[in-house]
Amino acid sequence: MNGKEKRRVPIVPYLRLPEAPDEKAYLVGSRCRVCGETYLGQRTACLKCHSVDSFDEIALSTRGRLLVYTVVHQSAPGVPVPHIAGIVVLPEGVHLRTNIIGVPAELGILQAGSQVEMVTQVVREDSEGNEIVAYVFRPVEGG
Ligand SMILES: [Zn+2]
Question: What is the whole-number distance in angstroms between the Cα of residue 82 and the centre of ligand 1?
Fold first, then answer.
């Protein structure tokens, strides 16, 4: 046992990282048991039907479609630019803001509606040397 072993830590609580080699990272959603509306992360109340505490935790799809995107030329210190920021919609109806990797950060490269898949990447280390892991999306070949 080594108490200072490096860990991989998700940057947001709704990102689940694999614990075994045959597992894949995924995002956690909350699905309303009453109306079926699904949200990213944990929720206590449904915006659609106003039910409270009626959610099931589900694993969201790791593939979705790109709705819109833009090329970001100015960002917070330490964030590389230019990069692509987009909005992805998952089959469960969840919309999420995310960065798109794997293509040049230029307008006209991507098409709205094209298929993208989630991947994780280490974005930095914390003060204890743990790896902070974020999710991004990249285009699916032939998608
Ligand atoms: Zn509901």
Answer: 39
**Alpha carbon of 101 to ligand 1 centroid (Å):** 33
Q: Give me the residues paired with residue 26 across strands.
A: 16
Count other Cβ atoms within 10 Å, centred on residue 27: 23
Quote the pTM value.
Answer: 0.88
* CA 39 / ligand 1 centre spacing (Å): 10
Angstrom distances, CA of residue 136 to CA of 3, 11, 15, 52, 98: 30, 12, 11, 31, 6
Strands 95-100 and 83-89: antiparallel
Q: List the chain domain ranges.
A: 9-139
**Is the pLDDT at 101 greater than 90, yes or no?**
yes
Give the Å distance between the CA of 75 and the centre of ligand 1.
Answer: 36
